[in-house]
Design a protein that fits this description.
By secondary structure, the protein is of the alpha/beta class. It has helices spanning 9-26, 38-49, 76-83, 105-118, 155-160, 181-185, 200-208, 241-250; strands at 2-6, 31-34, 58-61, 63-65, 95-96, 124-127, 149-152, 175-178, 189-194, 226-231. It binds 2-amino-2-deoxy-6-O-phosphono-alpha-D-glucopyranose.
Length: 259
């Protein structure tokens, strides 16, 4: 795992945007794992501004609320359409979001896993992090080997995501169809982006704490190619900062990304 700390949210977002742009240019038919949430809105805005073609890319989103149809303004399919897909030349037939409106959620989950396999697996998986440590909607106690399935959301998550539901946590669906932690760990590369003070405590637990299913993001410590990109605020609980900064300032792989 590598931790890169940038001075503010926009610098962290720009770094992730550059990493993804570079990948799409060097591998135009790459398979991207995509995330949602407020943090990603700035990233998608930046990506959509780049002179970049998504024409040959395929995408798989992490999760979707159970019970919401694709055209529901609160669905993650709608979010993706609004923040990224409609602003790029991506072929919508190559975009995938779990089907939270399926009558058979088990079948929809296994179809999703198969579609990822059929696409050759995920090249780069983008992640945010919830305040309870979830990646996707893998709430505390999600098995580290879990696959795509429907999952009951914690009250913390429903409160955290209430903004998209008129501020009312009761209106946030109580379940979601989400890639499992194991599905996420199968990606060839993982980039987690987190910004803001509210994420500082959970980032410290996920990165420097023990690997535990109580903090799903801590399972990323097992992944051989995972980058965690944070701003100063989200980094404020980390103990090993001197080393993380040294790596960014000195390792040749980061030379193109240093200001
Ligand atoms: C939702 C998504 C997660 C995302 C999280 C963070 O819960 N299911 O994948 O990481 O939001 O959201 P935000 O960026 O708004 O803090």
């Amino acid at each position: 795992m590598e931790i890169i700390i940038r001075p503010d949210a926009s610098a962290a977002v720009e770094l992730v945007s550059s990493l993804l742009s570079q990948r799409i240019r060097s591998q135009p038919d790459c398979v991207l794992g995509l995330a949602t949430g407020r943090t990603m809105e700035q990233l998608y805005e930046s990506l959509a501004r780049q002179p970049l073609s998504f024409r040959q890319c395929s995408t798989f989103n992490l999760d979707e609320y159970v019970g919401l149809t694709a055209d529901d303004p609160q669905s993650y399919r709608h979010y993706m359409q609004q923040h990224l897909f409609s602003k790029t030349d991506i072929d919508l037939r190559n975009t995938h979001v779990p089907d939270g409106s399926a009558s058979d959620l088990k079948q929809a989950a296994s179809d999703y896993e198969q579609a990822i396999q059929a696409a050759g697996g995920i090249d780069v998986q983008l992640l945010g992090i919830g305040e309870a440590g979830h990646i996707g909607f893998n709430e505390p106690l999600s098995a580290i080997m879990s696959r795509t399935r429907d999952k009951c959301l914690t009250p913390t998550t429903r409160r955290q995501n209430a903004g998209m539901f008129g501020g009312d946590a009761e209106r946030v669906p109580s379940r979601a169809l989400t890639m499992g932690v194991g599905t996420i760990l199968d990606a060839r590369e993982i980039i987690l982006l987190a910004t803001g003070k509210a994420k500082a405590a959970i980032i410290a637990q996920a990165v420097e704490g023990p690997i535990t299913s109580m903090v799903s993001a801590s399972a990323l410590q097992l992944h051989p190619n995972c980058k965690v990109i944070v701003d100063d605020d989200a980094a404020s609980g980390l103990q090993g900062r001197e080393y993380y900064d040294f790596v960014f300032d000195n390792e040749p792989e980061w030379a193109d990304f240093r200001p």
